[in-house]
Amino acid sequence: MPKKKWQVINNSTRPGFNSLEIDGKKRKFGQGNRFVIDSPVLARDIDKTYGRNGNQSVAVVPYNDHQTRELGHIYSFGSSPSFAKAWDAFKKRQKKKVKRATQKR
Predict the structure, then answer these.
(1) Residue-wise pLDDT tens digits, 8-39
(2) Is 46 left (phi over 0), alpha (psi -120 to 50) or beta?
(3) Does residue 13 lie within any of the structural domains?
């Protein structure tokens, strides 16, 4: 299971506000005026200082990265015409097998 991430979005209208100073490191806002972090402690700290409880210059929201989540399982329970057609063909083959097996006895 992928690690949960948070997105820090620049909400400030102040000119020149293009980075945050966090734990002695400068974090710049990238494309779309945002950056992504994966530490829940850091997300809570940023939200407390700069977010809802602070000066409200950024928004900290959960980040759903469609590339890191598990892909691949597409279930179809007879909802598509091609599935229904394939299922009917399968059932016909099964009936023929049963019929042949009973006739040989």
Answers:
(1) 888 877 777 888 888 788 888 888 888 888 88
(2) alpha
(3) yes
